[in-house]
Design goal:
single chain; about 325 residues; alpha/beta; nine-stranded mixed beta sheet; 10 helices; 9 strands; about 20% strand
Length: about 325
């Protein structure tokens, strides 16, 4: 199947359309701070992914207020060829149009070090010319790839009858015949967006044969008045939902595949108490599948002995299961 890199973000409405802020992502591998600017904090995560990954399309999830007054066709829009508005024209656009204009400008223009020098720390050590975020060449229309497009698609988070539009969002993220690497900026949206996020991601990822994998999740810690605001990697934090799904699947149905996948994804040490516990859970899963009553009894005894024994009391995962 075709593999696509999809960037997903959410929008609601915008208040600030004038004050330029600055954002950074600390790359642990290079120990370098990658810096970008943005009038809205919603720009930061998108610019970061567009500078580090080849993105094949962007999916923006929002409310009807997000596109209220939008003067461009909603779907799809090629950001590499979107006509750019003058700065004064952006004051009257919808939140969606403002976002795509800012991202299109980022992709269509060259950012220079001079744009950031004034925001450097007093000793000048915070940034240097090589730390400025610029578009990944694979996301641009170049001489070697003149037909390159980068479509952005808007999807309403609710249906016309005001129910969650889970099917519409899932369809936009993963088209038929695709395998998708999903890059997520969780910065925007309204209070209910988080519930929609969790439902959509659970549908897409809590299947062993799912065509969608979460590649990376970021959010921006925005502090008004701060010189720079950090773009934070939240991938590991989100995977706690996989742990919860795996616990529920085992407790209700005796299935251990989700919890085993979670262990592999977060690199739980083989010698840890939790890995030993998951091994017993996998044995129970197999015994149930094979209708092997003797093996099932043996595995249940091992779990009982585990919880009554001297396993590491500081193992937070095992302790969660013991409570349940």
């Amino acid at each position: 199947p075709n593999t696509k890199n999809v960037l997903m973000t959410t929008l609601s409405t915008l208040n600030n359309r004038n004050i330029l802020n600055y954002y950074y992502y600390f790359d642990k591998a290079s120990e370098q701070r990658l810096v970008c600017n943005g009038i809205s904090s919603l720009e930061a995560g998108s610019k970061f992914f567009l500078s580090t990954e080849k993105i094949d399309r962007i999916v923006v999830v929002g409310s009807k207020e997000t596109v209220s007054g939008t003067s461009v066709p909603v779907n799809p829009i090629d950001l590499l060829r979107l006509p750019l508005l003058e700065a004064e024209e952006l004051s009257t656009t919808s939140a969606y149009e403002f976002y795509i204009q800012r991202i299109a400008a980022f992709l269509q223009s060259n950012t220079t070090y001079d744009d950031y020098v004034a925001r450097s720390t007093s000793n000048g050590s915070f940034i240097d010319a090589s730390s400025i975020i610029v578009p990944h060449v694979a996301n641009l229309c170049t001489e070697s790839c003149p037909d390159r497009t980068l479509p952005v698609i808007f999807v309403s988070e609710t249906t016309p009858d005001n129910t969650d539009n889970l099917a519409g969002i899932v369809s936009a993220l993963c088209e038929p015949g695709e395998n998708v690497n999903l890059f997520i900026d969780m910065q925007g949206g309204n209070r209910t967006s988080g519930y929609v996020w969790n439902a959509v991601l659970s549908i897409l990822t809590n299947q062993i044969t799912s065509p969608v994998s979460i590649a990376k999740i970021v959010a921006t810690n925005f502090t008004p008045g701060a010189m720079y605001n950090e773009i934070v990697d939240e991938t590991a934090r989100y995977k706690i939902t996989d742990l919860a799904a795996g616990m529920n699947a085992f407790i209700r149905y005796g299935k251990a595949d989700i919890i085993e996948s979670y262990c592999n994804a977060v690199n739980v040490p083989e010698e840890s108490a939790f890995r030993k516990l998951v091994g017993y859970m996998v044995d129970i899963d197999h015994a149930i599948s094979l209708c092997d009553i003797n093996a099932l009894r043996d595995s249940i005894k091992k779990i009982r002995a585990f919880f009554s024994g001297t396993h590491d009391n500081n193992d937070r995962f095992s302790n969660i299961f013991e409570v349940l």
